Amino acid sequence: MQRPQRGTEQERQLVREAGITLIELLVVVTIIAMFAALVGPRLFRQVGRSRVTAARAQINSFQTALGAYKLDTSKFPTTEQGLDALRVQPEGVARWDGPYLPQDIPADPWGNPYVYKFPGDHGDEPDIISLGADGNQGGESDDADVLSWKSQ
């Protein structure tokens, strides 16, 4: 192919066809923004749900460890002893055969400590509560508490 001479109409036509126009760039950016507006909220809802699922899994793990603790000691840890009794033997507790958890007691998925209460207000089992994203009792959506006595 023969190279066009500098400044000729043919060269100017090649230069125009080689680049991206501002209109084309704006169309692409608009499409990306529309996609993000549609998909973004759905992704953030999933993050909230996954944290609730993780909190439920941790609470179930605590309940399993508390069951083993009770089998060994014939009672659950008191509120004052808390979940730490699953890792470190409390004073005056005979037949403790722990630790009952392989790692230290984690914070809930939002970084707040779990609330432990025994005797609990909801049956013979201890109450274990994650206070949700806001770290306060009650709330809705992501701020809702995750409770050991509720399965959902």
Find the CATH superfamily of the domain at 53-147: Glycoprotein, Type 4 Pilin
CATH hierarchy, class of the domain at 53-147: Alpha Beta
Q: What's the CATH topology name of the domain at 53-147?
A: Glycoprotein, Type 4 Pilin
- Name the average pLDDT: 84
SSE class:
mainly alpha
- How many β-strand stretches? 3
Poorly predicted spans: none
Q: What is the share of helical residues?
A: 40-55%
- Element string (H = helix, E = strand): HHEEE
Spatial order of the strands in the main sheet? 1-2-3
CATH-derived architecture of the domain at 53-147: 2-Layer Sandwich
| Total DSSP helices | 2
Task: Tell me the fraction of residues in β-strands, as a range.
Answer: 5-15%
Largest sheet: 3 strands, antiparallel
3D shape: elongated
N- to C-terminal distance: 71 Å
Oligomer status: single chain
Radius of gyration, in Å, reads: 30 Å
What does this structure look like?
The chain has helices at residues 9-18, 22-73, and strands spanning 115-117, 127-130, 146-147. Strands 1-2-3 form a three-stranded antiparallel beta sheet, covered by helices on one side. 15% of the residues are buried. The model has no long low-confidence stretch (mean pLDDT 84). By secondary structure, the chain is mainly alpha-helical.
Task: Draw up the topology in text.
Blueprint: H1 9-18, H2 22-73, E1 115-117, E2 127-130, E3 146-147
Antiparallel strand pairs: 1-2, 2-3
